[in-house]
Design brief:
alpha/beta, single chain, 12 helices, four-stranded antiparallel beta sheet
Length: 332
């Protein structure tokens, strides 16, 4: 089967072409925030950097300091609710994302403009298209839709890409399953832990997915890791491929996704494709701060140059990933 692309031109760019886009993106971002955000102007002034000083991605990495959650929380605590880093007028804010957590004091706040919301919704197309989603498909949203980024962006993405989105997150699990069977959904969105729960409840509800969900094309996951064996069991039980998205409130987008090969092609973990044209992701050794080589593990450090409302610059994500070369996946 030929690879399904959402935007073939973008998804098959060379590394050289990607770096041109990223350099222009970070240069525009630095100029924008320096002139419009007191927080970032002070951040760059402390580093002795003016926007025009950055002429390469290497200079960007060498001269622009890291940011941390602590920096962002301190800014918004001293200057509620958005902090001084907001580079647009509050009149342009159209949505707010708050990071998860039990204490409001440790939660980051991200303000989105209308363009940020559109961009966030569009990025989900890079995951939905490989799964075979088409306009009019019925897609059940089981992720919570509240103040956290994932559910808000995904719900908007369903509308943006022409799906018939069913927001079932507020119902109990058995009612969710009943409605999914009644409408014979084409896809649904769940966390790995919740998919396990639904699998158990299918027996109690008398639902056999291969019999009752005959149109199921894909199950979309996010937020949690999972072993290969679990994924294989789920694909067999539900009769559908699993796909996974990697994102964060800091990004406000799906910024890494599995292609049409799904999460466990050939009996092993699949790879995730970065959306390099909307954000810069550096994979660095967490101790030395230097870029890792292909095949090595490192920490993602992210810069959201496409985001207008609450961009972040060289934010240490704290996760652990393994950087793979472009040819690690043969989808193209």
């Amino acid at each position: 089967m030929a690879t399904r692309f959402y935007n073939r031109e973008i998804e098959t760019l060379s590394q050289k072409e990607i770096r041109v886009i990223q350099l222009k993106g970070v240069q525009d971002l630095l100029g924008r925030v320096y002139h419009n955000s007191p927080f970032y102007r002070a951040h760059l002034d402390r580093a002795g950097v003016k926007p025009g000083d950055i002429r390469s991605l290497e200079e960007f990495a060498e001269r622009i300091p890291f940011m941390s959650k602590k920096d962002l929380v301190a800014d918004q605590t001293d200057n509620p609710p958005f902090g001084l880093r907001l580079p647009v007028p509050e009149s342009e804010v159209r949505q707010v994302h708050i990071t998860s957590g039990t204490s409001g004091k440790g939660q980051e706040v991200y303000a989105l403009t209308a363009e940020d919301r559109r961009m966030g919704a569009e990025t989900f197309g890079y995951q939905m298209t490989p799964a075979g989603c088409e306009p009019g498909d019925i897609s059940a949203m089981l992720w919570p839709v509240a103040t956290m980024a994932g559910g808000l962006i995904a719900a908007e993405a369903l509308n943006y890409h022409g799906a018939n989105g069913m927001l079932l997150y507020m119902f109990d699990s058995k009612m969710k399953l009943g409605l999914m069977k009644r409408f014979n959904v084409h896809s649904f969105w769940a966390t790995p832990a919740y998919l396990t729960r639904l699998t158990v409840l299918c027996d109690e509800a008398g639902i056999v997915p291969k019999r009752d969900l005959t149109r199921l094309k894909g199950i979309f996951l996010s937020t949690e890791p999972f072993p290969v064996e679990w994924a294989q069991r789920m694909e067999e039980f539900w009769g559908s491929p699993l796909y996974d998205l990697y994102g964060s409130s800091q990004f406000g987008i799906c910024y890494a996704y599995t292609c049409d090969k799904g999460v466990v092609p050939n009996g092993k973990h699949g790879v995730y494709h970065l959306l390099d044209h909307v954000a810069l992701v550096e994979i660095l050794d967490p101790i030395t701060g230097q870029p890792v080589k292909y095949g090595e593990e490192g920490e993602p450090v992210i810069t959201t140059f496409s985001r207008r409302g609450a961009p972040i610059i060289r934010f240490r994500q704290g996760d652990r990933v393994r950087l793979l070369p472009p040819e690690a996946c043969d989808c193209g």
